[in-house]
Here is the input.
Amino acid sequence: MSVYVAGGRTSKFGTGALALGVALALPGVVVAAPAAPTFTKDIAPIFQEKCEACHRPESIAPMSLQTYEEARPWARSIKARVADRQMPPWHLDKNVGIQKFKNDRSLSDDQIATIVKWVDTGALQGDPKDMPPLVQWPEGQGWNYAAQFGQQEPDMVIRSNEYTMAAHAQDAWDKRQTPTGITEPKWVRAIEIRPATVKGRRITHHAIAYLQQTEPDGASAAGFGLLAPLMEWAVGKQGEMMRPDTGKLLMPDSRITWDIHYSQAGEEITSAVELGLYFYPKGQEPKFRTSLALVPAALGDMDVRPNQITVTQGNTVLRQAARIESFQPHMHLRGKAMMMEAILPTGETRVLSYADHFNFNWHNTYVYADEVAPLVPKGTVLKITAWHDNTPAMKSNPDPNQWVGWGDRTVDEMAHAWVNITQLSDEDLQAEIQKRRAAQPNTQQP
Ligand code: HEC
Here is the structure.
């Protein structure tokens, strides 16, 4: 049987060894960096590329990193966050599983080495003449994809209820609902989410838009699923563009249930979140349908004991051939790591992705690049393994002496992955595999 799981790696270890692997998987930075890197020559270009999307005035991060004067006081903290790969927020193990993504914002080993060395050698400014021109970030609230479709605006904008965040307050989650109001089924080809106002960027930590609707065949999409989120958005992420000939189907009774995480910004700000939808024109409906599936390690029942690391595991059979588009681990405060594997009908197991240093603050979606998104046959099992650390070693753990069960509150736990899955027929699967082979003749195929 022909299967294409690029970048995957056969799992060599059992669950026990993996748990150990989590503890040992501290990043070792071994790449050579310039003798004494300077801000203007070596660091500013990296910050412009990898940090300023969030670390600039009027944006989500607590400080701007655009100039030497702004960055210098944070040098120690920058070294710590960068060396342990918490910043930029991208929490995958770089040595396991697929490594090519459409939305990779992580630093290379080289870049990490350069930043660490810069701090270790005194965080020097360097020659001001070396400083690259400041990046001009858009002032307004433009839509990223509109121009690509030759339009000014998305075809449809759905706005959440307004929310007022006090100057100083605990984090808040707005989970209200908005009907889409469409009257006939629509095929979505791209989605964007943005804060409704420029100031809103400062309080909108992340926003998820869950789509609820009745499926045409009465079943839920992809054969599983409770809610089918349309997309997830975290600050700095531009949106979601479907692959060619692929779309999401929106039904007339659809509703958006929001999950917007607001954080204080030191001043009272009222904002909302806007979801922009771009539709396939009538008569150009895509051949393939993508749905976001909830693929559980555990669902409805968990037993996270005090002062222990708990491992949960779930297997979900794909009843149809599929292209696996993305991976988003979902856990709460004690979530430590999550792995997604594919067990092929041949019995071979491939690690697709492994978030080894999960951070509850960041709902990252890892979107596989076109040429590596796994193509798997009917009968493939998606295996999700989740590790929850209910010990004092977990920084975000509010109380390691508490027993924790499954539930919706942040202090309860969850253990599932949100996975975009495109359903394929057996013939389409073979055709897609042939296309890949033709495009990448030198890649070893299973
Ligand atoms: C996607 C948005 C985003 C990107 C990209 C990003 N950051 Fe951050 N950063 C944040 C946010 C939001 C916070 C505060 C919340 C948190 O700590 O998670 C933060 C916090 C930090 C902190 C901790 C500040 C403190 O209070 O001690 C440091 C240091 C940092 N970032 C450095 C960086 C560096 C360096 C880069 C680029 C190499 C980077 N970040 C890229 C959003 C981002």
Remarks:
- The radius of gyration is 22 Å.
- Confidence is low (pLDDT under 50) at residues 6-29, 218-226.
